[in-house]
Specification:
Blueprint: E1 2-7, H1 17-27, E2 31-36, H2 39-48, E3 54-57, E4 63-66, H3 69-93, E5 98-102, E6 109-113, E7 116-121, E8 124-129, E9 134-139, H4 141-149, E10 153-157, E11 159-162, E12 167-169, H5 172-182, E13 187-192, E14 198-199, E15 202-203, E16 206-207, H6 209-216, H7 221-235, E17 240-245, H8 251-256, E18 262-265
Helix pairs in contact: 2-3, 5-7, 6-7
The chain binds adenosine-5'-triphosphate and magnesium ion.
Length: 267
Amino acid sequence: MRIVVKIGGSLVDEDLSPLARDVKELGKEHQIVIVHGGAKVVTDIAEKLGKEQKFVTSPTGFRSRYTDAETADIYTMVIGGTVNKKLVAILLKEGVNSLGLSGIDGGLLVAERKPRIKVKEGNKILLIEGDYTGKVVEVNSKLLELLLNAGYVPVIGAVAIGKEGENLNVDGDRAAASVAGAIKADKFVDMTDVPGVLENEKVITKMNKVEAKQTMEKVGPGMRRKIFAALEAIHEGVPEVIIASGIGDHPLIYALEEKNCTVITNE
Ligand SMILES: Nc1ncnc2c1ncn2[C@@H]1O[C@H](COP(=O)(O)OP(=O)(O)OP(=O)(O)O)[C@@H](O)[C@H]1O
Ligand SMILES: [Mg+2]
C-alpha cells in the first residue's frame, strides 16, 4: 500500500517519536511519503526577524498568510530547513530511512502563482498585489517513485517552485493531496492536533463527499482546508482520506485502523 501522511505544523512542539515509530513499523510493508507544513514556526521566526506577518481571508472564507517576497524567503527557509530537518532527525532517530526535500528540490512541487489575491475585509473585497502564494499544478512523481523504490521515506516541506523560478507558499494540506493523487496513494492521512473533524465536540467518524462538502461550511479555518484538500485528493483518485491526531501512542497505526478519527471516502 502507498500512504501519504501530512504532518501538521500544529504538531511541531509535540512528541513525534510515537508517530516516527509507526512510520518505521508500517514502512516494512508499505511505501510512505510525508508532507509537512509549519505555519506556526514560520510566524515565530519571521517575527523574531522583525517581519510582521499578516493574515487575510478570501471571499470564500479561506484564511492565508499574505506572502510578500521577504516572507516567501522566510517561509522557504523555515519549511525547507528548520521544520524539515527537525522531522527528518526524529524519523532517523527511530530508524526510518528518511530523506528531507522541499517542494523546490528536483521540481518536486510546481505551482501556479497567484500574483494578486482577493481579500475580504468587512463588507469590502480588495485585490492585493505582489503575493507569492500558489497552487500546486504538477508533482514530480518520478522522483518520488525513485526514492520509494530505493527504500527511502521522502519528507517534503510544502514550498513550491513557480513557472518563473520563484519560491511559493503553498498550502500543506492541498500539497499533500496533490502528492497523494500523483503517486496514486491508497490512503492520505492528514495528521493534526485534534482527533478529526469535530461537531459538538464529537468526532465525525465517517463522511461521504456530499457530507464532507456540507460539513466544510460549518467548521473553522484550519479544518475547512483539510476537508477541501480531502475532496481534492478524492477527486484525483485517492480512495480514502483520514483526518486524525498525530499525538499519543500509535497515532498512524490507529488512524489506519480507523480508530478515533474521521474517514472521508469517495461515495
Ligand atoms: N470543526 C472542527 N473540528 C476540528 N478542528 C477544527 C474545527 N474547526 C476548526 N478546527 C481547528 O483546526 C485546527 C487544525 O488545523 P491547523 O491548520 O491549525 O493545523 P495543521 O494543519 O495541523 O497545521 P499547519 O497548517 O501548520 O500545517 C485544529 O487545531 C482546530 O483548532
Ligand atoms: Mg493547517
